[in-house]
Amino acid sequence: MIDVNDRRVIKRSIEVIKKLSSKLDSIKIMHLCGSHEHVICRYGIRDVLPENISVVPGPGCPVCVTTQREIDTAIYLAEEGYTVATLGDMYRVPGSKKSLMELQSEGADIRIVYGIGDAVKIAEREGREVVFIAIGFETTAPTTAAEVLSVKSRGIDNFYILNCHRQIPPVVEFLLEEGSNIQGFICPGHVSTVTGLKPYYELSSRYRVPMVVAGFEPVDVLMSIVMILRQLVEGECKVENEYRRAVREGGNPMAQKLIKEVFEPVDIPWRGFPVIKNGGLKLRERYREFDIYYQEDIPEMKEVVNSNCICGEILRGEKLPTDCKLFGRYCTPLNPVGSCMVSEEGTCNIFYKYGRFV
């Protein structure tokens, strides 16, 4: 097992990357996790890569890919008198006219919680109708599923979720199908602790693209780049597990069982993307009593997006925050224009935090 703090391993990884890159043309690798972007920016990994090797951020932030329509729906529900419980990152994401934070200042009942369990406690303790904004990839979906099962078994009838869960493999397939010119993927380790490696096998084989599941230390990211480049040099395209200290081949069967019991795949749009086939999860019919969309007649929400904001292009890996005329001037963490500047997992927020202005 790799010693993640061994400087010699880090130095050797950089040397191997340079050696392998000399045998390749321009290579574009995409990662799918805000935590990977933190590591890349904090430790200057892009600064040590050869000129022909680029690592771009993709749609790896669940807050960022949540659509404006979903934010506006949460705002509508709060205006209708529901108590809306949300994780902190969602609190300041701009809707078409305002954010949940701004709505709270107008008197709406918005609660910041640590997780869905806290939202259920509010419903039990106060007897109010509570809607929890359920976001996240396969990593957080099991927690939502477990709580839905618990709420149902206890007969709680004043708790609902605004379901914004997404799945990673379908968006990878969309990017490849659309001809995004990505030669390799660094896949998020925490998602794979749940799903395992299997969801990537067919994609890697069909599109002939290396995919490496990686951990969250500098050496993990560097080693994943080494593994992708080595595959490309040797003419291979397969799924590899760099994060073996945490990810098993089959993932977490219990978490997978929870997801399968409570959710089913659904076609859904992501911010910056059209509708992605099986890109999301929806509650199965036997649990629809907890889906706010089936309890409330919610009007159609029309998105009003700032034409100067390029969050969509950043999420698709087409541009970086430094390509945006708003970045660091009109759009900052204290005054975010787009979702990518709000969340700590957002690419713009990370670039701003680590002073990546050029």
Automatic annotation (TrEMBL):
It comes from the Archaea. One of its GO terms (biological process) is protein maturation. The keyword Metal-binding applies. Keywords: Iron, Metal-binding. Pfam families: HypD (PF01924). GO terms for molecular function: 4 iron, 4 sulfur cluster binding; carbon monoxide binding; iron ion binding. InterPro entries: Hyd_form_HypD, HypD_1, HypD_2_sf. Gene3D superfamilies: 6.10.20.100, HypD, alpha/beta domain 1. Belongs to the HypD family. This is Hydrogenase formation protein HypD. It comes from Methanothermococcus okinawensis.
